[in-house]
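2024-03-11 09:14:02 DEBUG pipeline.ingest accepted 1 chain
2024-03-11 09:14:02 DEBUG pipeline.ingest length=132
2024-03-11 09:14:03 DEBUG pipeline.predict start
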Amino acid sequence: MIEFVDHTGELELLVSDATLEGLYAEAVRGLAREVAEEEPAGGEEERALELHSSGPDTLLADLLNEVVFLMETEGFLPSRLVVHEVAGGWLRGTLAGRAGLDVRPLVKAATYHDLRVWREGGLWRARVILDV
C-alpha cells in the first residue's frame, strides 16, 4: 500500500508491505508514480544497485535519493526494484525502467526528518518526508 500526505514544500510518503524487500520496492514504485502518471512504452534497461547505510530507515532515504539522482542525471524512470539481498543497512538489487526520458522530478530529495521504518501487525511500514 502507498499513501501520500501533502505538506507545505514536502510530501510524506507512507509505505507498507509484508516484506522488507517489498517495502523498498513499493517506495521506489511510489516515487516513480509521483513523477510520471503512466509508464512509457519501450524496452526496459536495468541498473545494478548496491547501497550501504547505517540502518533500514536511512537505507530507505538513500535508496530514494539514488532514484532521484538517476531521474535527474539520466532521465531514468524506474518501473520496479528487485531486491536480491537486504540486511540492516545494506541492499543489493536491480532497478528496471526506461532511460533517456525527459523526467522532471517533483521530488528534490528524501529527507531524514521523521524518517522511520518499523514492523507492526505483521507488516513492514515506513514513513519518509520528500522535499518537493
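2024-03-11 09:14:41 DEBUG pipeline.report Helices lie at 20-35, 56-74.
2024-03-11 09:14:41 DEBUG pipeline.predict end
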